[in-house]
Write a structure and sequence with these properties.
about 30% helix; Vancomycin resistance protein YoaR, contains peptidoglycan-binding and VanW domains; single chain; Ubiquitin-like (UB roll); 15 helices; transmembrane helix; transmembrane; membrane; four-stranded antiparallel sheet; alpha+beta
Length: about 575
C-alpha cells in the first residue's frame, strides 16, 4: 500500500467517528425526552384509579386509592346494610347482610379497579385510556353465611324424616320415611351474594326434595331381614342342662334398630337382655332350688334356677344369631359355667305335690313378742319341701332363736313355771305344725308336749321346742313330696292372732282321731319365790290323757292301722312372788 493511500483514509475515519457521536447524542437526547415524559406520566397517574372507572355504579376514576376507597364507601352507604328479601313460593324472609356475613372490602375493590401504584406501561395506558364498570369486592364470612343458609332451609323448608323400625309391647312399629324440602346450599349462597348491593335486593329461591337417609327400601329390608323373623317364635339359650326359653312377648323390649351407614341395623339393650336371662337363672351365680307357690289353694311349681356365670357379650352374640333363624333352629348352647339346683324343676314336678291334704289353725292372745317370734318362725318354715323319706326338724329349719335370727324375749315354761327367754311363743308354731303333720298321716319321729297343759292347744295333741334340747320332728313316709305352708295373722289388743299350717302333697291317708277323758289328776303345789324374775301364777291340776290316730285309705272305711299317744301333764303350781331377798 502507498503512503498516499494511508493519508487519504485518515480523514474519512475521523469523519465516521464524529458522526457516531452525533447519533449517540441524538439518541440519548431522545431517551431523556421520552423518559422525562414517562416519569411525568407516572407522577400524574401512577397511584390513581383509571379515569372513568366505576365500582358498583360509584365513580371512583382519577382518584388515589385512599380517596377512591372513601368515595366508594360513601357512595355505597345506603346499600351495604340494605336487607335482602328471600322468597320461596308464598313465604318470605328478610335477611340482614350482617347476619349473612356479607360486607364490602373497599380497598380490595379499589385495587381490583387498577388503583394500585405501578410503573408498568400498561397500567399507565389504562389510566389514560379509561377504566371499566366493575362490581365491588364482597367479603364473605363463611361461618355466618353457612349458618344463615341452614336456618333459611329450616324455616322455609321441611326436614326429611328417616324411616324407622321399633318394637313396642311385643309388636313391630314402623315409622314411614318422609321426603323433605330444602334449599340448595350452593345456589342459595350464590344468590345471596349476587343480590347484595343490587338495586333490587330480592332473591327468589326454589325448594328441592331432600331424600331421607333411611328410605322405604331400607325399612322393608329391616323388616324382612330382622324384625319379622325376630318375633316369629321363641329363642332358647341352653346353659349346661338348663334351657332358658325366651318368648317374643318377653324379649321384644330388648330389641331395637338403629340407622348406621344409611341402613337399619339390629340393636340390643344388653342390660335388659341380661336381666331377662337372669330372671330364669341364679342371678348371683348361685343356683336356686325349685319351690312352690300356693295360688287359690293349689300348689304351683316355681321353676328352679341354675347357677350360671357367663359373659353378657356371649349371651348377646348368641341371641342375635338365633333371633333371625327359622323355627326349629332357634336353640343354641351358651358358653358358661353352670351349677344345677339341688331340686330341679323337673324333680319338683315329679314330687306329686298337687293338693292340700291337711290344715290346722291355732289362736293366741295378744302379745307383741308372740307376733314377732311366731311370725318369724312361720316365715322360715313356710315353703319347706320334704322329699319322700326326708325328716322335718323344726329346730333345724328355724334355727337358734337369737336376735340376729329375728327373735325377741318372751315367756317360756321352765321347771314348771313361766320365765322369759329368747324365742318365747315358738311352741305355738310347734303345736300347729305337729297337728298339720298329724292329720296328713306323716310319721311322728319326735314330739314333746308342754310340761303342763295350756288350754288354747288341743289336749294331748301339742308340742313344745327348745333349741338344742327338745325338737319337733316328723318324717315324710309317703311316696310323694310334702310342702309345708305357714301363714300368720298377727294379734292386736282387741283380737287374737291366727296361725295356720297346711300340708300339700298327694293324699295318702284319711285321718280321724279320738281323745280319752282326762284321768289321774294331780293337784298343784304352791311356791313362794323372791327371785327378780318371779311371775305370779294361779295353779291348776295336772292329768293324763290318751289320743288315737286312725289311718284309712282315701274313700275307704277300712281301718289300716291306728296309733296311740299318751300324755302326762304335770300340775301348774301356784306361784306367789315376794320382794327379792325377803325369804330366808
Amino acid at each position: 500500500m502507498s503512503l498516499w493511500d494511508e493519508s487519504a483514509r485518515e480523514p474519512d475515519a475521523r469523519r465516521e467517528r464524529n458522526g457516531g457521536r452525533v447519533v449517540l447524542l441524538v439518541l440519548v437526547g431522545l431517551a431523556l425526552l421520552v423518559g422525562g415524559g414517562y416519569a411525568a406520566a407516572y407522577l400524574a397517574a401512577g397511584d390513581k384509579v383509571p379515569r372513568g372507572t366505576t365500582v358498583a355504579g360509584i365513580d371512583i376514576g382519577g382518584r388515589t386509592q385512599a380517596v377512591a376507597a372513601q368515595a366508594l364507601e360513601e357512595g355505597l352507604a345506603d346499600k351495604v346494610d340494605a336487607p335482602i328479601t328471600v322468597t320461596v313460593d308464598d313465604r318470605t324472609e328478610v335477611v340482614q347482610p350482617a347476619d349473612a356475613g356479607l360486607s364490602v372490602d373497599y380497598l380490595a375493590s379499589v385495587a381490583d379497579a387498577g388503583g394500585e401504584q405501578s410503573w408498568e406501561p400498561q397500567r399507565l395506558w389504562d389510566y389514560y385510556t379509561g377504566g371499566d364498570d366493575l362490581d365491588a369486592v364482597v367479603s364473605v364470612d363463611d361461618t355466618k353465611l353457612d349458618a344463615l343458609v341452614e336456618r333459611l332451609g329450616g324455616d322455609l323448608g321441611s326436614d326429611a324424616v328417616d324411616g324407622a323400625v321399633d318394637f313396642r309391647r311385643g309388636e313391630i312399629v314402623v315409622t314411614d320415611p318422609v321426603v323433605g324440602e330444602g334449599l340448595d346450599p350452593g345456589a342459595t349462597r350464590e344468590a345471596l351474594v349476587s343480590a347484595y348491593l343490587s338495586d333490587e335486593a330480592d332473591v327468589a329461591l326454589t325448594l328441592t326434595d331432600i331424600a331421607p337417609d333411611i328410605d322405604m327400601a331400607d325399612v322393608q329390608a329391616a323388616l324382612d331381614d330382622f324384625a319379622n323373623p325376630a318375633l316369629s317364635s321363641s329363642v332358647t339359650l341352653v346353659f349346661g342342662d338348663s334351657p332358658v326359653r325366651l318368648q317374643p312377648r318377653d324379649f321384644a323390649r330388648v330389641l331395637g334398630m338403629k340407622a348406621e351407614g344409611g341402613v337399619l341395623v339390629p340393636a340390643l339393650d344388653t342390660e335388659r337382655l341380661t336381666a331377662l336371662v337372669s330372671d330364669q337363672i341364679g342371678g348371683s351365680g348361685a343356683p336356686v332350688d325349685a319351690s312352690y307357690d300356693v295360688v287359690d289353694g293349689k300348689p304351683r311349681v316355681v321353676p328352679a334356677k341354675p347357677g350360671v356365670t357367663y359373659e353378657p357379650s356371649v349371651v348377646t352374640d348368641t341371641f342375635l344369631t338365633l333371633v333371625t333363624q327359622p323355627e326349629g333352629e332357634r336353640q343354641m348352647d351358651v358358653e358358661a359355667t353352670v351349677v344345677e339346683a339341688d331340686l330341679t324343676t323337673k324333680e319338683a314336678r315329679a314330687l306329686g305335690i298337687r293338693e292340700r291334704v291337711s290344715s290346722f289353725t291355732t289362736y293366741f292372745p295378744y302379745a307383741e313378742y308372740r307376733n314377732i317370734n311366731i311370725g318369724r318362725a312361720a316365715e322360715i318354715v313356710n315353703g319347706t319341701v320334704l322329699e319322700p323319706g326326708e325328716t322335718f326338724s323344726l329346730n333345724d329349719v328355724v334355727g337358734e332363736r337369737t336376735r340376729e335370727n329375728g327373735f325377741t324375749e318372751g315367756f317360756i315354761i321352765s321347771d314348771g313355771i313361766f320365765k322369759e327367754d329368747l324365742g318365747g311363743g315358738v311352741s305355738q308354731m310347734a303345736t300347729t305344725t305337729f297337728n298339720a303333720a298329724f292329720f296328713a298321716g306323716l310319721k311322728d319321729v319326735e314330739h314333746k308336749p308342754h310340761s303342763f297343759y295350756i288350754d288354747r292347744y288341743p289336749v294331748g295333741r301339742e308340742a313344745t321346742v327348745a333349741f338344742g334340747a327338745i325338737d319337733l320332728r316328723f318324717q315324710n313316709d309317703t311316696d310323694s313330696g310334702v310342702l309345708v305352708e305357714a301363714t300368720l295373722s298377727p294379734s292386736t289388743p282387741s283380737s287374737q292372732g291366727v296361725l295356720t299350717v297346711s300340708i300339700y302333697s298327694t293324699k295318702t291317708w284319711d285321718i280321724t282321731t279320738a281323745t280319752s277323758d282326762r284321768y289321774a289328776y294331780v293337784s298343784p303345789a304352791t311356791r313362794t319365790l323372791d327371785t327378780p324374775d318371779c311371775y305370779p301364777n294361779t295353779g291348776y291340776s295336772g292329768f293324763q290323757v290318751d289320743v288315737w290316730r286312725y289311718f284309712r285309705r282315701p274313700g275307704s272305711d277300712d281301718l289300716v292301722r291306728e296309733e296311740k299317744f299318751h300324755t302326762d301333764y304335770t300340775a301348774s303350781d301356784t306361784v306367789i312372788c315376794r320382794p327379792p331377798g325377803s325369804i330366808d
